[in-house]
Design a protein that fits this description.
The structure holds 3 protein chains of 3 kinds. By secondary structure, chain B is of the alpha/beta class. Chain B has helices at about 45-55, 75-85, 100-110, 130-140, 155-170, 185-200, 210-215, 235-240, 240-245, and strands at about 5-20, 20-30, 35-40, 60-65, 70, 85, 175, 205, 220-225, 230-235. The chains are: A mainly alpha, B alpha/beta, C mainly alpha. The interface of A and B includes residues 175 and 187 of A.
């Protein structure tokens, strides 16, 4: 049944990575940024909101997890939950101000807030470690009531843990995308004015999308901190937000599984190319331009088109445009 | 009979300014329940602007709007939908990438928008609002196109869907902005019958350029010019009004012969 | 000299540069209806081209003229060859294509000049200070204020007084109307985009003796341009001027009161303006 197809595909990819890849850290990174890209996709592909502020929530998640695990030793699952909550809270604040504007104004505001957050993180050295960031973040094993359930010491052990969380969140987001809320978001993306005219409170809808996006991205940031042991200032840089957006767009907007594809594509390419040529980001910039010009549905759309051509079907006119299909 | 129907919608001294340009300069309008009330006038008269004011698409610069006894002047459009107002647009504004059925479901669900925030349940079963959607599909004659993306419909079909979107909200008052614009002759007649039949369950406020339709089905006609009401009355009264004749340069108010 | 007066004057200088940086962005948005995320990249190119020319022994004065023209030409070509093809798609892709372009430019700059950044010397004629009674101030900074003021007047005259300017202002209202009047809208698009790039590059050239040239300055310049435009009001010439001056003065004065927080404060100022006046100080409600 198509309903479970996406989830099964995701599970397949998750199982395939340990079998095909050498680095557990890289595999974990792919899943972590797939989470962030899915959060971004919920905004861009489903609601039509282009946000340059995802780095804010990612960094908030990292900092929160770091602080919860180092300063006030809090059980690891709780630390993750708090980081998720912080991401959601940050998104609520940024969203509340930014959503009052529409279209391009909104996009510009998310960039400005991203920079603002960077400078806040830079100056609040007591909390964030400023330029140095926070370091020596432990990676406690998963234990409940003193009973150890899951050791997380080795990279692949950690991967297993992250994979489980990823699949859970993926399933939750699938439900959201198929829910009444998700379907309403698609309408908002298609034609905002009409959505308002038939009775929908745009601000509230967009804000809820923002909060969910922020929560998922915050969780990703927290997992990243656990994996690397660091919560660096660079998470709050423009480049992080840009990177998440690039993954989302190249993967394909409007389809959650495409975000996993985008994350894998970006990180595997980065891993391979950066050893060959330090300026590989140039190619990425060109790829982004190419996708924007000719392949707006991203890699997923490309795969879909090829599949349809092989099956001899022509896609109906209205869907062969910049709007992707829903997951 | 209709002269004694209660007043459902009232616009009192409504003004709208865009910067220095006064689109509406003190418009008074009374729409009675279960009537077809047409608003006509030359281009630039402010008809669509008046619609924007009545439905809340844009905010008034002055004056009041009272709907069903409630003051709605400062309520935005999405709130007025819940009170029982629904509109169609002069320039087709549909969810082009979504199927016809989904367009209608969204419109039907808009009346209970809290459902729209539900991030867990899919819109299936009772949430699919199939009864309403199916009845609207039948009414506007789009049953066969239910699964087609709205962007793939012909112009006439899209105009019908526009009306359908308003109907799906099961409104007390339905605002149709030039529903027949660009339609062919066959579609025109169907649309005319459709609008005529709406009177029983709804109050219809209609902007139309097609005088055949206006004169045939309206209970009241309001004529606008340059942002003000020029004349108002039954279709026959308007047909014989000299001022209206002058505003239209004579030859349009002849009941379809112009 | 009173330190606050000094900082206010510095603020005016920075503010005028910010105005120059932002006005191109604002005009481009007003006409083409999208925000060029590569605007900071044009600023970056301005600074680096200037640096390169001075390295080749050419005069700063020559760079002041040649570099904006060169980068303006690059902008003009970019619109004509690349951006034009994206207008038919969703507005997200207009922005994303320029984001890609900005990234490409940044990497090319690092490829050519290395990742560390360089400094540009103040031209000989403008070295040193001006002394006028109690008033002591670097000559170069005065020059920047003077030149940008002249440019502001020039730009104002172009927009208000010439046929091109009228076409741009009319086009900001409705490109359909303008094309119906027989004016080649697409050609104006390229010209305006080129003009926007040129002003950004000029800002880069003028800023380079003060700030140097560094590959990541494009991103910060973009963010600052956004702040100025948001504060002043999108599409408004005088808004860009007012916004630029305000932000420049805030930053400058704060750098005395709280140096680490100076750059943060400009964003705080932006947030404050937005809460009170969501469309900027001089913006129109769309």
């Amino acid at each position: 049944m198509k309903k479970y197809a996406y989830f099964l595909l995701a599970a397949l990819v998750v199982l395939a990575m340990p079998l095909t890849m050498q680095s557990g850290s890289l595999a974990s990174e792919v899943l972590i940024f797939a989470l962030a890209a899915m959060g971004c996709n919920l905004l861009l592909g489903f609601t039509g909101l282009l946000s340059f502020g995802q780095g804010i929530f990612f960094a908030l998640g990292s900092y929160t997890a770091a602080l919860m695990l180092t300063r006030w030793p809090v059980p690891m699952p709780l630390a993750l939950l708090l980081a998720t909550a912080m991401g959601a809270l940050g998104a609520a604040v940024v969203g509340w101000v930014a959503i009052r504007q529409r279209g391009t104004y909104f996009v510009m505001l998310t960039l400005a807030f991203s920079q603002m957050f960077y400078f806040i993180a830079y100056t609040a050295t007591g909390l964030t470690g400023g330029d140095n960031g926070l370091m020596d973040i432990p990676r406690p094993n998963l234990s409940v009531l003193g009973v150890e359930l899951w050791a997380l010491a080795s990279p692949w052990q950690l991967y297993g843990f992250i994979a489980a969380i990823f699949l859970l969140v993926f399933w939750l987001l699938l439900k959201v995308s198929r829910s009444t809320f998700g379907r309403t978001l698609l309408a908002v993306r298609d034609n905002e004015e009409r959505a308002a005219a038939i009775g929908y409170n745009l601000k509230l809808l967009k804000l809820q999308a923002f909060v969910i996006s922020g929560a998922v991205t915050g969780l990703a940031g927290a997992l990243h901190a656990m994996m690397t042991g660091l919560a660096p200032l660079s998470n709050a840089e423009y480049h992080t937000s840009e990177m998440i957006l690039v993954m989302t767009v190249i993967g394909g907007t409007g389809n959650l599984l495409a975000s996993l594809l985008g994350s894998a594509f970006y990180l595997l390419l980065a891993d391979w190319l950066s050893q060959l040529w330090p300026r590989w980001l140039l190619l990425l910039g060109l790829a982004l331009m190419a996708v924007s010009l000719w392949m707006q549905r991203g890699l997923w759309g490309l795969g879909d088109s090829i599949l349809q051509k092989l099956q001899g079907r022509r896609a109906p006119a209205a869907t062969v445009d910049a709007k992707g299909e829903q997951a | 009979m209709t002269a004694h129907a209660p007043i459902l919608l009232e616009a009192i001294d409504v003004e709208k300014c865009y910067g220095k340009f006064a689109a509406l300069g003190g418009v008074n309008l009374r729409v009675r329940a279960n009537t077809v009330h047409s608003v006509i006038g030359p281009n630039g008269a402010g008809k669509t602007t008046l619609f924007h004011m009545l439905t809340g698409t844009k905010a008034v610069s002055g004056g009041r709007i009272v709907f069903d006894g409630q003051e709605v002047t400062h309520e935005p459009d999405y709130r007025r939908v819940r009170r029982g107002m629904a509109r169609s647009f002069q320039v087709t504004s549909l969810f082009l990438s979504l199927p016809v059925r989904e367009n209608l479901r969204l419109a039907a669900q808009g009346v209970t928008p809290r459902q729209a925030l539900n991030p867990w349940h899919e819109p299936v079963g009772p949430r699919a609002l199939s009864q309403v959607v199916d009845s609207v599909l039948a009414k506007v004659g789009l049953e066969r196109m239910a699964g087609t993306p709205a962007g793939n419909l012909s112009h006439g079909q899209q105009r019908r869907l526009e009306v359908g979107m308003a109907l799906a909200a099961r409104p007390k008052a339905i605002f149709l902005d030039e529903p027949t614009s660009g339609m062919g002759i066959d579609d025109l007649e169907d649309m005319k019958q459709l609008i005529k039949g709406l009177r029983d369950q709804h109050t219809v406020v209609l902007i139309e350029h097609n005088m055949n339709i206006v004169m045939d089905i309206s209970d009241t006609v309001t004529v606008m010019q340059l942002g003000r009401v020029l004349a108002e009355g039954k279709p026959n009264e308007i047909r014989g009004d000299d001022r209206v004749r002058a505003a239209y340069l004579g030859n349009m108010i002849t009941g379809g012969k112009g | 000299m009173n330190i606050y007066l000094l900082q206010v004057i510095n603020g005016v200088g920075i503010g005028m540069l910010y105005f120059l940086l932002a006005v191109g962005l604002s005009i481009v948005f007003g006409l083409l209806r999208f925000v060029n995320f590569a605007h900071g990249a044009f600023y970056l190119l301005g600074a680096y081209f200037c640096y390169q020319m001075t390295r080749w022994g050419m005069s700063f004065w020559l760079a002041l003229v040649v570099v904006p023209l060169a980068v303006g030409g690059i902008g003009w070509a970019t619109e004509k060859l690349i951006l034009r093809h994206v207008y038919a798609t969703d507005h997200e892709f207009h922005i994303l294509v320029t984001v890609g372009l900005a990234l490409v430019v940044q990497e090319l700059v690092i490829l050519q000049w290395g990742p560390l950044g360089d400094s540009v010397a103040v031209p000989d004629a403008l070295q040193g200070v001006v002394i006028w009674g109690n008033f002591v101030y670097p000559k170069y900074r005065l020059f920047v204020i003077g030149l940008t003021a002249v440019l502001a007047v020039l730009l104002w005259w172009v927009l208000e007084g010439t046929r091109l300017g009228s076409a741009v202002r009319a086009g900001s209202e409705s490109t359909e109307m303008v094309s119906l009047l027989g004016i080649n809208v697409l050609r104006i698009f390229s010209l305006v985009f080129g003009l926007g790039a040129a002003t950004a590059a000029l800002a880069g050239v003028l800023a380079s003796p003060i700030r140097g040239a560094e590959p990541f300055m494009g991103v910060e310049a973009l963010a600052v341009a956004f702040v100025v435009v948001v504060v002043g009001g999108m599409g408004s010439f005088s808004g860009a001027l007012l916004g630029g001056l305000m932000i420049g003065i805030v930053q400058s004065v704060m750098s005395t009161l709280w140096p680490e927080g100076a750059r943060l404060m400009i964003y705080v100022a932006m947030a404050a303006v937005l809460l009170l006046r969501p469309h900027g100080l001089l913006g129109r409600k769309e």
